Amino acid sequence: MNLKQAKELVRGRLSDKRYEHTINVKKMAVKLAKRYGADKEKAALAAILHDSAKEISKDEMREIMRQYPQYAEGGESRPTPVWHGICASILARTQWGVEDEAILSAIACHTAGKPGMSKLDKIVYLADMTSAERDWPGVNKLRKLELKDLDAAMLAALRQTNDFVLSQGKPLDPVSKAAYDDIKARVNARG
Ligand SMILES: [Fe+2]
Ligand SMILES: [Fe+2]
């Protein structure tokens, strides 16, 4: 699936608002890919597809994860907000002909992160948090940091997200906690 096909596909699956978000995530992902010497095409395709399963029902998501347990990454036992990335990755792999593991990974982990994230994983995660229409407190700070230091930005982003989940009294995905611990150790180790 090329970028044009992916855009047409998600245009049909998403509301206007979420489609606009998707296009903004793509722009930010390409900007970060250029900045860090990552593959721009892969960043663009992962960004376009990242929320492609966000507007289907929980039942449908559960069905997709049950059908492909080998790709569900513990899916059902994890908090529901992370399901849509996992499902988008499964659909991209099994229905839409996306074979590139780096792209599939970046789609799957865009909400929770994971330990040992690749450069592309980090780019899509951060692009999703800092796309042009985002206006949460602190977003400008993260926009500056992500252009300076990808890992420091990832650490700040995961801290922010995980703290927010906990402050809402919601369950924190253990994978997200592990992602935070992992990036923290990496940032600390480089001094
Ligand atoms: Fe998402
Ligand atoms: Fe998103």
UniProtKB/TrEMBL annotation:
Organism of origin: Faecalibacterium prausnitzii
Cell membrane as UniProt keyword: no
This protein's name: bis(5'-nucleosyl)-tetraphosphatase (symmetrical)
Phylogenetic placement of the source organism: Bacteria, Bacillati, Bacillota, Clostridia, Eubacteriales
Known catalytic reactions: P(1),P(4)-bis(5'-adenosyl) tetraphosphate + H2O = 2 ADP + 2 H(+)
Record bears the keyword Iron: yes
SMART domains with a match to the protein in the record: HDc
Domain of life, source organism: Bacteria
MF term (GO), any: nucleotide binding
Domain HD: 18-133
EC number: 3.6.1.41
Sorted UniProt keywords: Hydrolase, Iron, Metal-binding, Nucleotide-binding
